[in-house]
Each structure stands twice: as structure tokens, then as C-alpha cells.
Design a protein that fits this description.
Elements: H1 12-18, H2 56-66, E1 79-88, E2 108-116, E3 131-139, E4 142-149, H3 162-169, H4 185-192, H5 198-204, E5 219-220, E6 225-228, E7 234-243, H6 252-261, H7 265-275, E8 281-290, E9 316-325, H8 330-335, E10 348-349, H9 354-371, H10 451-458, H11 462-477, H12 482-492, H13 498-508, E11 541-545, H14 552-564, E12 568-573, E13 578-580, E14 586-588, E15 591-592, E16 603-606, H15 609-616, H16 619-630, E17 635-638, H17 642-647, E18 656-659, H18 662-674
Parallel strand pairs: 11-12, 11-16, 12-15, 16-17, 17-18
Antiparallel strand pairs: 1-2, 1-9, 2-3, 3-4, 5-7, 6-7, 6-10, 7-8, 8-9, 13-14
Helix pairs in contact: 3-4, 4-12, 5-10, 11-13, 14-18
Bound molecules: CIS-heme D hydroxychlorin gamma-spirolactone 17R, 18S.
């Protein structure tokens, strides 16, 4: 059998990882397997005397501890990950020879890491930031890494600018402020002088930068890649991940509050969804462009600041990604996983996108600095296909390579490991013709920095536009240098849209001092808007407020109905433990009010009866409802619960549902939750 082509069964990677995974043993030992009698006290000279250097156990333990940290990722340091699988829904042999894309019966194991970009490893999950969406496919032909983001374009067109954009967005070097935030002078200084960042800025200032859940965000490979079939024909392709749960986001006010109330918000949501069996799922989409058609767009397919509008090239849905197992150990798996866009398999190849070309170099380099030259041997990184070559030695080599031969060609080992013939699907670089002078230039075809920024703006619904205006204004109002803010307005925003520039000028107290360079176009791409209802409320979290005298039957009916829809519920009361229900029973409380801020929930239910009267006198409950209302969340009030809304002048309608028939109210609540949020509410006067 051809060893390099063993089949990766669904559990192939799980089995591989199991070889490195272990449960705690019954006896405490040193690293040398020596059983210990006392791990509580150091060896000392006399009961109150100094510690002895001889204490090898203490020295081993403390030294290991001293060396527990490795350098965090220079970007994308904060992340969370999960195991799962990928499966195509149709045979894509016409496009690619990659085995993972050819057999709908085959499940390829994956490990997926989501991340923020700017913050340190210990920062919060919810800053305004791009999210990484990196997928490691353990295919039977080798590891393929699709290292993408949740935004389909990037700030810069050439990898040589990457250290600059990252230095600008990271905390400022003199005082390391601010953590995980782009709202500061250096970031806006850089982008104001880098007009190619404008399209990306529109996305980052939109709610895309505040995902409600990793499972509710899209993913994009960004660059044009190539798919190559067995006949050697290539197509350009853009990769998309489309979430089954729809695309939904937090509000900026929520995101900021969550950063304090539950900095692990997205990480926890991912973990809990998998533990609950509510497996996050995405469809893989492809935008395919024949090589011959590559020049037919008004932009360059190699320019990573451009999308191909879905209306021009539809996204063909070809497979599913399911995450169904949490890691066993954060450090060993999530921290040590090493992605690299250069990890490809036969049938997947690169384009000349200058950002991608730079990434092909950078990731290998960074893994060596983070993990060492043998990073590929770590359990989470090693392939499930056979691996054999003449690389040897280096720090922390685990493999024990037998024999005297570590070179090629050789005769002493029978020529092994040998080249693979074409029939065995070895990787061969796509034979793309290349010619030209050596030049340090930017192609003219990369020169339009504003058309797609305008396209994005034109495609937004009114509330999405409001949030973009608010985000630009918030960020610029954190910038101290007036000339920088002015430049953002005069050099970037005026060239995107008049109303955008005018509205940001008003909110930042600036006056526009330039005129736009060209006439704005009126085109839109509806696919760019997030203003679309979801078809289910799976995984959403509903708070049910409770107080003494609560109607246990009513509350049970609410829970049953919401659980049927796949939503999660939590009963919140003033203190932990239980509340006394109207029928005298003790109703379990999931969380006491101080531990359950409204920002952690998607909707709230206010019960009727005596509990409603009690809640009306509780400040925390009133604040919960007010804040939920102000954040546009669905609010359901049963029976007397509606009095609480009246008391606070919160009008029913637009996602606020009231009534006495539990079934009917819950039905309306579910519909309201599918809308996610109700932006039409007039909340300016609501004190929350
Ligand atoms: Fe990365 N990027 N990047 N990046 N990137 C890293 O690799 C880099 C870019 C992305 O969960 C680093 O292992 C350069 C675009 C993700 O472990 C580093 C350039 C996209 C992750 C690096 C880019 C990404 C990284 C830091 C410009 C979306 C996290 C640690 C040419 C398509 C992967 C590491 C994980 C991580 C370099 C731009 C996505 C330094 C030079 C565009 C999701 O190698």
C-alpha cells in the first residue's frame, strides 16, 4: 500500500492525539518517575531553617513552572479552538484533485482556531477587531491550513506593510496603552496615510467586528487561491465560510460591558455549545473564476483589499464544517497549534497576491520563534498522512529516525524516502508562466481604494450605517491628534460617501476641508448586509426573571418552549439557590442577579403573577429590562409582567411582546429572536 496515501478516517486525528493524551495517574512522581512522599514542604535544615539546594524535587518543580510560558503570537494572541470535521457535499474533481474535495463520503478531521488580532493572550473576547478563522485540515494527503479572517479584505496590499499596520494598532510602545483597541492615535495615523486601508476600515467599523458568537460569523480566505484539477487546469477561487446560525453581532455598548462582565464571552459560548451538543456549523462556499476570466473585473483579483461581489460570482456551497469536540488541553492544542498558509495539498495552490506571497514566508518563521524548529512534530500539528524526509535534529526532536542515511539521493537506503510519481498525487507547483523585470512597485491595477468602500456603505441598512458612523466617531474621538482625525475625514471618508463623511464630521466636531476625488457610484451588493433574519434561535440565551410567588407552571412552559427551539434559558433571581413559587415549591435559580447582567443574554422573559409585582420593586430587575430594551433585544412580558414595561414607559411592539397566553407569547418571542435585534426602537431616552 502507498503509505503516503493512508485514508484519514473521521477519527484519524483523534486517534493520533489519543497517543499523546493521558489522564492523571494514581501516584505523584517527579519527571523521572520517582514516587514522592511529600509535595507540601521543601527540604530544609531544621524545621525553621533555610531550604537546601539538594532538594531536587523542589528545583525540578519550580524550574518547570518558571519556564511554562512561550512567546504569545505576535498577532492573533487571544484565541479559542475546537476539533471537528469537514465533508464535501459533492465531488469537486472538475475543479481540484485534492482528495478532501472529491469524495462526499469522506470526513476530514479539522482543528479550528478563532482569535482576535490586536489584544494580548489575556485580553477580552469582545473588542472591536477582526477575528481570525484558521482551519487546519488533517487530510490523507497532508495538512492543509486555510488561515482566514471573518472579514473578506485586508488593510494593506503588500506584506511589507504588515509590521507597520500591526505596530500601529498594537498598544503604543512608550506606555503600552491601549490594550486590544484600535481607538488610538497611532492606528488612525497609519491608516489615514494609507488609503488602501479604507475598504477594510468600513468592515472593521461595522458590526462585523463585534461577533455575537464565533458560530455566528462568516469566514473568508481573503486572497484568490488556485484550485488545480488532475488535468492540470487551474481556476481562481475565493473561500467562504457561511455560518448555519446566521451572521449576528453585539452592539458596541454591549461589547464594552461584556469585556468586563465576561471577558471569555465568545470562548465560553463556543465551549458550551459543543458541550451541549449544539455543534457550530458552517458551509464552505467557493467563488470560482476561470483563469481566462481573471481580467474581466474592474479590480485586480490579486488585490486583497477587494471582494468579488456575490451578485457577480455566486458563492457555490460545496461542503460543511462541523465543530464537535472541545480540546482536552488549551496549551497543548489551542496554544501550540501552528497555522501556515503555505501548508497546502495537491490541487490547492497560490496566486500572486502580494499579501499572500508574504504570508507564505512569515508563518513558518513565526512558528519557529514561538515553538521551535520541530513544531510540526507536536501532536496537534502532526499530519495523519505518513511523514518522512531527511530533516534531522534541532531542539526538542521527538522522532527517533533510524538508519545512517539522512540525504537524498542515496543508494544505501534504497533511494528512500523517494520522490512520488504523479500517479500518487504528489504536490507539483502549478506551472504558471511568469516573466517581468524586477521592480519594487505597486501595480496600477491596485490603485482604486474607494469604489468598494462605497459599495460596502451603499449595501448597508440604515441601522448598519448608524453603527458605522458611531464606530468611526467613537474611535476618532479617542484620538488626541486633531490633524490625524482631520486626515481620516478629508483623505478617506469624503471619498467613500458624502453622508458618511458629513455624519462623522458632526459627531467628531470636525469640519470637512476637502472635496471628493471622483463621483461616487450607486452600486450595492445586498449580500454584504447583515440585516437578515436567522432561521432558528439555536444557541441563543434567554433570561427568565423570577421572584417569590413565581408561577412555576408558567415558567416551566416558557422553558419547554424555548428549549424545543434549541435556545438556552437561565432563571435569574435576587439571590442564588431557589425562589419560592406560588405553589410553595422551591424553584431552582440558575444565577443570582449580580452575576447575570443583561448583556450576556439575547432576550428576556418577565413572568406574570405575584413575581411581576415583586420584580417591579427590584432595581436590578428593572435595569435588566431597560438595558435589554435599549439594546434592541426581544422582551416578553407575561400577564402582569407587562406592568413593568408600562412603569418604565417601554412600548410593546417591535420585539416587545406581551400577553397571557404563554404559547402565543413564546411563539412571538421566537419570531422576534430570529430578527436578533430591533433597531427601530426609539431608545435615545431610555436610561440604560
Ligand atoms: Fe496573519 N499572521 N499575517 N493574516 N494570521 C499570524 O502567525 C501575517 C493576514 C491570520 O489561530 C502569525 O502563528 C502577515 C491575513 C490568522 O494561530 C504571523 C500578514 C489574514 C492568524 C502572521 C498577515 C491573516 C494569523 C502570528 C500580511 C487573513 C492566527 C502568529 C502579509 C486571510 C492563526 C502566527 C492562529 C497569525 C503573519 C495577514 C490571518 C506573524 C505577514 C490577510 C487567522 O505569522
Amino acid at each position: 500500500m502507498d503509505e503516503a496515501r493512508q485514508t484519514a478516517a473521521p477519527a484519524a486525528k483523534d486517534q493520533d492525539l489519543a497517543r499523546a493524551t493521558q489522564d492523571p495517574g494514581p501516584h505523584l512522581t517527579t519527571n523521572q518517575g520517582l514516587r514522592l512522599a511529600d509535595d507540601q514542604n521543601t527540604l530544609r535544615a531544621g524545621a525553621r531553617g533555610p531550604s537546601l539546594l539538594e532538594d531536587f524535587h523542589f528545583r525540578e518543580k519550580i524550574t518547570h513552572f518558571d519556564h511554562e510560558r512561550i512567546p504569545e503570537r505576535v498577532v492573533h494572541a487571544r484565541g479559542a479552538a475546537a476539533h471537528g470535521y469537514f465533508q464535501v457535499t459533492e465531488d469537486l474533481s472538475d475543479l481540484t484533485m485534492a482528495s478532501l474535495f472529491r469524495d462526499p463520503a469522506k470526513r476530514t478531521p479539522v482543528f479550528v482556531r478563532f482569535s482576535t488580532v490586536a489584544g494580548s493572550r489575556g485580553s477580552a473576547d469582545t473588542p472591536r477587531d477582526v477575528r481570525g478563522f484558521a482551519v487546519k485540515f488533517y487530510t490523507d494527503e497532508g495538512v492543509w491550513d486555510l488561515v482566514g479572517n471573518n472579514i473578506p479584505v485586508f488593510f494593506i496590499q503588500d506584506a511589507i506593510k504588515f509590521p507597520d499596520v500591526i505596530h500601529a494598532v498594537k498598544p503604543e510602545p512608550h506606555n503600552e496603552i491601549p490594550q486590544a483597541a484600535s481607538a488610538h492615535d497611532t492606528f488612525w495615523d497609519f491608516v489615514s496615510l494609507t488609503p488602501e486601508s479604507t475598504h477594510m476600515l468600513m468592515w472593521v467599523m461595522s458590526d462585523r467586528a463585534l461577533p455575537r458568537s464565533f458560530a455566528m460569523m462568516e469566514g473568508f480566505g481573503i486572497h484568490s487561491f488556485r484550485l488545480v484539477n488532475a488535468q492540470g487546469q487551474a481556476h481562481f477561487v475565493k473561500f467562504h465560510w457561511k455560518p448555519r446560525k446566521g451572521v449576528h453581532s453585539l452592539l458596541w455598548d454591549e461589547a464594552q460591558k461584556i469585556a468586563g462582565k465576561d471577558p471569555d464571552f465568545n470562548r465560553r459560548d463556543l465551549w458550551e455549545a459543543i458541550e451541549d451538543g449544539d455543534f457550530p456549523e458552517w458551509e464552505l462556499g467557493l467563488q470560482v473564476v476561470a483563469e481566462a476570466d481573471a481580467g474581466k473585473f474592474p479590480f485586480d483579483l490579486l488585490d486583497p483589499t477587494k471582494i468579488i461581489p456575490e451578485e457577480d460570482v455566486p458563492v457555490r456551497r460545496v461542503g460543511r464544517l462541523v465543530l464537535d469536540r472541545n480540546p482536552d488541553n488549551f496549551f497543548a492544542e489551542t496554544e501550540q497549534v501552528a497555522f501556515c498558509p503555505a501548508h497546502v495539498v495537491p490541487g490547492i495552490d497560490f496566486s500572486d497576491d502580494p499579501l499572500l506571497q508574504g504570508r507564505l514566508f512569515s508563518y513558518l518563521d513565526t512558528q519557529i520563534s514561538r515553538l521551535g524548529v520541530n513544531f510540526a512534530e507536536l501532536p496537534i500539528n502532526r499530519p495523519v498522512s505518513a511523514m518522512s524526509n531527511n530533516q534531522r535534529d534541532g531542539k526538542l526532536r521527538h522522532r527517533i529516525d533510524r538508519g545512517r542515511v539522512s540525504y537524498f539521493p542515496n543508494s544505501l537506503a534504497g533511494g528512500c524516502p523517494a520522490h512520488s510519481p504523479d500517479a500518487m498525487a504528489a504536490f507539483r507547483t502549478y506551472a504558471q508562466p511568469v516573466s517581468g523585470q524586477k521592480l519594487r512597485v505597486r501595480s496600477e491595477s491596485f490603485a482604486d481604494h474607494f469604489s468598494q468602500a462605497t459599495l460596502f456603505w451603499n449595501s448597508m441598512s440604515p441601522w448598519e450605517k448608524d453603527h458605522i458612523v458611531d464606530a468611526f466617531s467613537f474611535e476618532l474621538n479617542m484620538v488626541g491628534t486633531v490633524a490625524v482625525k482631520q486626515r481620516v475625514l478629508d483623505e478617506l471618508l469624503v471619498n467613500v460617501a458624502d453622508d458618511l463623511a458629513a455624519r462623522v464630521a458632526e459627531k467628531t466636531g470636525l469640519t470637512i476641508q476637502s472635496t471628493r476625488r471622483s463621483q461616487p457610484h450607486q452600486q450595492a451588493s445586498p449580500a454584504l448586509s447583515m440585516d437578515r433574519p436567522a432561521d432558528s434561535i439555536r444557541g441563543r440565551k434567554v433570561a427568565i426573571l423570577a421572584a417569590e410567588g413565581v408561577d412555576a407552571t408558567q415558567l416551566g412552559a416558557v422553558q419547554t418552549r424555548l428549549h424545543q427551539e434549541g435556545a438556552k434559558t437561565e432563571v435569574i433571581a435576587a439571590v442564588a439557590g431557589s425562589v419560592k413559587a406560588a405553589d410553595g415549591s422551591a424553584l431552582p435559580v440558575d444565577r443570582p442577579a449580580p452575576n447575570a447582567p443583561s448583556v450576556l443574554y439575547d432576550a428576556v422573559v418577565i413572568p406574570g403573577g405575584a413575581a411581576a409585582t415583586a420584580l417591579a420593586g427590584m432595581g436590578q430587575a428593572l435595569h435588566f429590562v431597560l438595558e435589554s430594551f435599549a439594546h434592541g433585544k426581544p422582551v416578553a412580558a407575561l400577564g402582569e409582567g407587562a406592568e413593568i414595561l408600562k412603569k418604565m414607559s417601554l412600548a410593546p411592539g417591535d420585539g416587545v411582546v406581551t400577553g397571557t397566553d404563554v404559547d402565543k407569547v413564546m411563539h412571538e418571542l421566537v419570531l422576534a429572536m430570529k430578527q436578533h435585534r430591533h433597531h427601530g426602537r426609539l431608545t435615545a431616552a431610555v436610561p440604560a
